[in-house]
Amino acid sequence: MSEAYDSNEVQGNILRGYRNNMVRYLILEVSDLAAARRFLAASADGTDADVPKITRSAWWATKPDVCFNIGVTYEGLRALGTPGECLDSFPTEFVEGMRARAMKLGDFGSSAPEHWPAPFDQPERVHIIASIYVDEEHHLDVVQGQVARAFNVIGVRNGRNLADQKVFFGYQDSISQPKFRHVDDPEQAAANEPADPLGTVLLGYPTRMQGLEFSIPQPRELGFNGAFNAFRILAQDAQGFETYLDKAADMLLTHPRAKDLLVPGTEDRIGAGLDRHGALREVVAAQMCGRWRNGMPYETSPDAQWPKSEEPGALTNFDYHHGSRCPAGAHMRRVNPRGGPIVQRIANYTRRLVRRGMSYGPDFDPANPDSQERGLLGNFIGANFGAQFEAVMCDWLNLGLQDPTVTGSNDPLIGANSPETSWFDLTLPKEGTIRLRGFPRFVTTRGGAYTFLPSLSAIRYLSRLTG
């Protein structure tokens, strides 16, 4: 490493998951510069009981009641008085911001920024996004009140964990995260994938690409040990997804090769009590995602969702290869091709992102559909937007450039799809595929921002700015 890693210098939400029940995101505007700087100083030092303390990456003996962190936008750095020569040292993607990068991210049509609600319709006012993770709801209002004394709160977004760690599409989530060198994470102990260098997410450390470290914004005190985060509000059309699974299963009931996809008489291996239609729709769901809805990887268990393996590492320890049963176009394989065959060989494991997310909106009942918005509050953390987040979103999710068999198709779950052009190939045990068509866009962007997650030293630096 370039310098010894100090876990007390790194914000805690970068390298660790908090596993709290709830989160509240506060979208903040700097309206009183002196008050904002005082808040940052107190939050970094943790000396004022009336200011929430920034949570560090260091492991704690006793979990705190509140985990508090901040991300600063380019406009936020300007509002805090960051000198122009320092602002010029930040990468172009961050300077331009998420709205300006919309086409690269697939944010067009119904996802276009002109449809984003307040406050993301005024990006020049979005200066800081603060996250408050708690298990007890009353802490959220207390911390929001503390923050509101120093900033103008222009937006609030609440998230929560759904039962069984699932998302509204019914899949178990939060299964696989990068495993980092020099970081002792008990939750990753059973994972046998290669350990990623800290430079995957932190500025100032080596990356997987030989001899390459991403540039550090200057001064070093500001940039070192920082990371970049794409904060995204993603509406999920859970009812539309379930409706499409019905449509796909209807088609497969009469398809001549459906017996190869699911051997008649084995429906109970997909789910107890499922008829053939119900089992086929779950096979489609599993291949589109790359996991069964209970979390089992399709790669290691292509013919059965049940029984679910309880072996340590059963959900994470697998790889892809030529002839894999998991489709090359599956969501999980697109976002993390692991060591599997891809055209861009150097890109294996170099585009890893830390994902933090919680659901928002009311519970979803497929039997009683409604029109209420629900979805995911997502954070996608890395050391470089262009080489990681944007490359995954554009090259892999919405172009399929990593594999010639999926080039020209979009990710079936979160891609920028339309019924007129969408397609996805289901794999069969032997040779051949069954092509699905006509599915709509299931995930729509409803707002977001590119933020910089400063180190503790950087937060103190920002608090000491003058002018």
TrEMBL record:
Which keywords belong to this entry?
A: Iron, Metal-binding, Oxidoreductase, Peroxidase
Cofactors required: heme b
Pfam families to which the protein is assigned, alphabetical: DyP_N (PF21105)
Is Metal-binding set as a keyword in this record? yes
Q: Give residue ranges for domain DyP dimeric alpha+beta barrel.
A: 9-147
For whether the record's keyword set contains Plastid, the answer is no
Its name, as the record gives it, is DyP dimeric alpha+beta barrel domain-containing protein
Upper taxonomic classification of the species?
Bacteria, Pseudomonadati, Pseudomonadota, Alphaproteobacteria, Rhodobacterales
